[in-house]
Amino acid sequence: MWDVIQSWLSVSLFIKKRWVGYLIAAGIYGLILILPMPGVETEARLCLGVFGVAVFLWGTSLLPLPVTAILVLFLLPFSGAVSSQDTYAYFGNRAVFFILGAFILSSPILRSGLSTRIALAVVSRFGNTPAKLIGSILGLSAVLSCFISAHAVAAMLFPIVLEVVRASGSKPGGRFGLVAFLALAWGVVIGSNTTLLGGARGPLALGILYNTTGDKITFLQWTIWAAPLVILLLVVAYGLLFVMLQGEEVSLKGALRFLEARNNQLGQISQREKLTAGLMVGTIALWVAVGDTWGLETVAFLSVSVAFIIGIAQWREVEEDVNWGVVLMYGSAIALSASLETTGAASALTQLLLGAGIGSPLLIFGIVVLMALTLTEFMSNAAAVAALLPVALALAQKYGIDPRAITLGVVIPAGLGFMLPVSTPALAIAVSSGFVRPPAVIRWGIWLDVIGYLVFLGMSKFYWPLVGLKW
Fold it and tell me: Where are its TM segments located (predicted)?
């Protein structure tokens, strides 16, 4: 009986908390409508109201991201901010189709066993000492995150790292387990910024950029502009992990036996793995060579079509592997950002920020980067990009900053959350292992946050002008 009462009370409390959140969201919408904003048109005010509700829901995770996306797609036309025709036209942005194509392509990589084979081969080859093993996990997770969605890499490598840690004799609370799983999480987070394939936040940002200004960032440009930060942060991350590992005695005999056994289970490389590897190499080559002229999404769909034609992708598997809710969320975020621009709402927000009297483009850029880095610790990096980038682009126009630079100033820092599990699935997966405690994530992650911020500002100021990005 007492169990029933406790269950009823917990459910009632949960419902009450949710309704309090809904009331706060409604209050935010109403407050934005009645606040004095001289010169702001009705449509812009209504759009700002929807934006305020979306930011609150994204930040609190009161509703799942795809559900918030549906709510935004309902509120924009229902409130009268923009017409339904424009709302759903914005949703059909080319970036959404690139995201979809990239997600579909990741399915045969995982299903064929190619990614597992690569992971086991690398860890077995370079993991004969604790320091080398940690370095191989860090480097492998970073490299794979250049080509596969970061959360998929973390999920794929998790059981391998877990078995290696257990086979080494490490227990929860031990230093080796902590370092191994932080190497996995940090490698995924850092490496996912190298290309547009590491996470959907990059294509999302490009969609917002193109809708707002008409500017583009090519696949190759993105990698060239982001690479120094990735390399330097990987070096810093390895240094921190090496320091954490000192004084820990670990026997890797059991771990190496496990890796050898798993490699033997895989057998000879299959035809599906060979075809998948060839297709991915060809796809990346096309993205680099003709992605700007053909369109990244066109190349992605060409490769998806080939994958189905030659039989390395199966629709049943794709249905299970693709996160359709994420696709919905990104399309909705792009529609919201486009509405903020066309109604003048983004300009209105910019005018409010300009009231602070800041006159330095460098200072504005630094503030935007810091805001992106801070927001991503408390909400998903995609939500941080969707909330901040429209305002940042408006600021860039006012201060004469290259919109491509301000876009990178939002989306790359938004992919560098190292302190809280809510910021990225990779950290959440690491904590779920039982070998990593949240206080340790915060204590060591803050170093990467601070160093990442300083390195990014230095890179944008001194390196970007050398490679064609002057802001």
Answer: 20-39, 46-76, 88-110, 131-158, 178-198, 219-245, 298-316, 322-340, 352-372, 378-396, 408-432, 444-464
Torsion angle of C-alpha atoms 400, 405, 408, 413, degrees rounded to 10: -70
Structure confidence by residue, pLDDT tens digits, 80-95: 999 999 898 888 877 7
| Alpha helix ranges (H) inside 267-375 | 271-294, 296-309, 315-321, 324-342, 345-354, 361-375
Is the separation of the CB atoms in 252 and 180 below 8 Å?
A: no
Read off the DSSP letter of residue 250: -
Q: What are phi and psi of 396, to 5 degrees?
A: -60, -40
CA–CA separation, 59 and 378 (whole Å): 7
Task: Please state the separation of Cα 109 from the chain's center in Å.
Answer: 19
Helix, strand, or coil here: 243? helix
Q: What is the dihedral of CA 448, 372, 30, 70, to 10 degrees?
A: -90
Q: Which helix (H) or strand (E) holds 134?
A: helix 130-144
pTM of the predicted model over 0.90: no
Residue 328 CA to its chain's centroid (Å) = 15
In angstroms, what CA-CA distances link 111 with 17, 145, 354, 364? 41, 16, 51, 45
Distances 289 to 198, 215, 231, 235 between C-alpha atoms, Å: 19, 19, 24, 30
Alpha-carbon Rg for the chain, nearest whole angstrom, is 23
Length of the chain: 471
Q: Are 414 and 385 in contact (CB under 8 A)?
A: yes
Distance of CA 374 to the CA centre of its chain: 14
Distance separating alpha carbons of residues 63 and 433, to the nearest angstrom: 26
CB 201 within 8 A of CB 98: no
Tokens representing 394? 């408006």
**SS3 per-residue string spanning 366-398:** HHHHHHHHHHCCCCCHHHHHHHHHHHHHHHHHH
The pLDDT assigned to 405 comes to 96
Phi, psi of 420 (to 5 degrees): -120, 135
CB burial string 413-438: b at 16+ within 10 A, e below: bbbbbbbbbbbbbbbbbbbebebbee
